[in-house]
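Appendix C reproduces, verbatim, an entry submitted by the partner laboratory led by Prof. M.T., so that reviewers can inspect both the input and the predicted structure.
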Amino acid sequence: MMNLSITGLYLSLLGLLYIVLAVRIIKLRYRFKTGIGDGGHEPLAQAIRVHGNFAEYTPIAFLLLACAEINGSVPVLLHVVGAAFFIGRVLHSIAITHSTGPSKFRFLGMMSSFISIIILAIENIRLFVLV
């Protein structure tokens, strides 16, 4: 039987963050009385983009994490990468919620995301080659 408990842990944390970001959009839509799009309201456009960016990066990272876990990667590596990705997404979400320009948190968040994806991709290739 396959066990994806590590992937499940970090994906659950990210699922909660996803809902927080979505609720933020809902509240802004209600405040600006905007059902579709951003209605020209910068805070709503920014919230939509924060949520969109999250939704763009999370699936590939967690497909890679799940594959690595199923294929027998070392649990400590999975925890380190899962935690780094989660922290990176939190930092990135905070950074672009407060500013659309460059920031240290935005940079750290994206680097955490990129590095996590790269490590998982390499780990999955390594596991494939070892089979």
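The longest helix spans residues 42-70. Additional entries are available on request from the coordinating office.
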